[in-house]
Amino acid sequence: MKNNIYIQNICPDCLQWLENNESNHSEEEFTTMQETLSVWVKEKYYPAGANIDKNGNCEPFFSWSRCELCNGLAGDRYKYNFIDESK
Q1: DSSP symbols for 49-86
Q2: What are the backbone dihedrals phi and psi of residue 30, each rounded to the nearest 5 degrees, phi first?
């Protein structure tokens, strides 16, 4: 099962939405996130939880890349686990 876990780099707003169902997304970012998640779920690719390090932390890091869920601009990112059940 562990081989089917993949890490996506997501923004703080996407993390907040996945963990607490609330966020500060713009309307466009929220729509993009929902569309991305919808496609991924149809492909049996599901959110599985924050990527926690050996010390029990989920630390942000800066990335120049856009958020992989909402396509938000560069900024802080968190590693988030997704499970691929299509394999």
Answers
A1: EE---TTS----EEESSPPTTT-PPSEEEEEEEEEETT
A2: -65, -45
Give me the residue label for tokens 């997501």. Answer: 10
Q: Which two tokens stand for residue 30?
A: 């929220």
HSE, CB side, 13 Å, CA atoms: give it for residue 23.
22
Question: Which position has the token pair 């690719």?
Answer: 45
The torsion angles phi and psi of 69, rounded to 5 degrees, stand at -100, -50
Taking only the tens place, the pLDDT of each residue in 11-42 is 999 999 999 999 999 999 999 999 999 999 99
Q: What is the spatial distance between Cα 11 and Cα 37, in angstroms, rounded to a whole number?
A: 14
Question: Residue 15 in 3-state DSSP?
Answer: helix
| 84 burial via Cβ count (<10 Å: 0-12, 13-18, 19+) | middle
pTM of the full structure: 0.88
